[in-house]
Design brief:
The chain is of the alpha/beta class. It has 13 helices and 17 strands. Helix 6 runs parallel beside helix 7 (247-259).
């Protein structure tokens, strides 16, 4: 944070709605807790700070003249203490469950919108990590102004149709036949550059722009399936934060209904960290998506797994072994053992296994011998533009 005397922090503080409000009694109880939430916020804030209620369970605060990370930590610690004890209503303790997200704010009116968006991203990160609070951080190497400029360019790219989907084939390990593809995002800029997601996706995921980009990817992939043989599927990556949003259910269902695509042809890939962050809600969302009929795949498997209990309970259809293990498996017995163990474990749970990062025929053959189901990697093809992919695999 800047040391300038006029810098402040904008925060979003949210009271969790984990309580069942499906009946009048519990709805009334939540209203009581919400009023107590507002009262304790007033105790937390100083006279020079400001606050405004955004909806029934979320408040925007401006903490004036907070000039260092240490000062913000002290404020957050006080926030935790203020809400540590439950509210007592008619002799019944009612515990608070709160989360907060903070972003630096320079007190300029035209900067408030950006700070609100950034605080919202930090709030979502706090809920994902089950931390009391998170502070928005800019992409490493980018200043605040550079990141804001990149966000504006991403918004323009979305509106101008500069995003394209490339497709990397997924092939049957035994028959080497095409069974589908993974859709991968590329940004074709106005000056004819082709930018891969690693150069912008971190910024997008920390800001609201990730939602419309992801919805566009899902709709575009489902639309493409109408032109391909019915035995082919398309995999799409979904950021973990969007699994917390109920909108994903309606976006997926609407796309499938509009284009008349069978749900099992759409494969949503999510990273392993969904298993350790907001576990119950994430699992609930995955169950609801599978109830629609889409397939769920765990991407980068093996890089963040924490417990076999999570694996037992996961409502998924497929796991993708992380390429770091696949690419080293011929030269490292430990990596080969990990790949073999993952394949066997997944098959014991009736899950399909995809190996990504298959760079040569020797790895491909070894994986087939191990019983891997699907292969993906440069030995078959790099991600290809749509027209080239369809021409190469005779889909046009």
């Amino acid at each position: 944070m800047d040391a300038a005397g006029n810098s402040s922090v904008l925060g979003l503080v949210e009271l969790s709605e984990e309580h069942d409000v499906s009946n009048v009694y519990n709805a009334t109880a939540f209203n009581v807790l919400r009023d107590a939430f507002h009262d304790r916020l007033k105790l937390w804030m100083r006279s020079k700070d400001q606050w405004r209620s955004l909806n029934h369970n979320q408040v925007c605060v401006i903490l004036r003249d907070v000039t260092s990370g240490g000062e913000l930590e002290l404020a957050a610690a006080k926030l935790g203490r203020v809400f540590r004890d439950p509210h007592i209503h008619q002799g019944t303790p009612m515990p608070f469950s709160i989360s907060a997200g903070f972003a630096e704010f320079d007190n300029k009116e035209n900067d408030m919108g950006l700070a609100m968006r950034q605080a919202g991203i930090a709030l979502n990160q706090a809920k994902l990590s089950s931390h009391l609070y998170e502070v928005y951080s800019h992409q490493e190497g980018l200043s605040r102004e550079e990141e804001a400029s990149l966000l504006d360019r991403l918004q323009d790219a979305l509106e101008l149709g500069e995003f394209h989907l490339y497709y990397q084939p997924k092939v049957h390990a035994g028959y080497q036949s095409l069974i589908g593809a993974e859709a991968l995002l590329r940004w074709h800029t106005s000056d004819r550059q082709i930018i891969t997601p690693d150069q912008f996706i971190d910024v997008a995921e920390r800001n609201e722009i990730i939602q419309p980009i992801t919805w566009w990817v899902i709709k575009s992939a489902v639309s493409r399936l109408t032109r391909w043989p019915t035995e082919l599927s398309i995999a799409v990556n979904v950021p973990p934060s969007l699994l917390l949003e109920d909108d994903i259910l309606s976006v997926v269902q609407d796309a499938l209904d509009i284009y008349g695509v069978q749900p099992h042809r759409l494969n949503l890939e999510v990273t392993e960290k969904i298993m350790v962050e907001q576990q119950d809600k994430m699992l609930g969302q995955l169950h609801r998506l599978r109830d629609i009929g889409v397939k769920i795949s765990i991407d980068d498997f093996g890089t963040g797994f924490s417990s076999l209990a999570y694996f037992r309970d996961l409502p998924v259809d497929e796991i993708k072994i992380d390429k770091s293990f696949v690419m080293r498996m011929l030269n490292s017995e430990k990596d080969a053992a990990i790949v073999r163990a993952v394949i066997n474990l997944a098959h014991n749970f009736s899950l399909r296994v995809v190996a990504e990062g298959v760079e040569n025929l020797a790895i491909s053959n070894r994986l087939a011998e191990m019983g891997c189901d699907v292969l993906q990697g440069y030995v078959f093809d790099r991600p290809l533009p749509l027209e080239e992919f369809e021409r190469e695999y005779k889909l046009r």
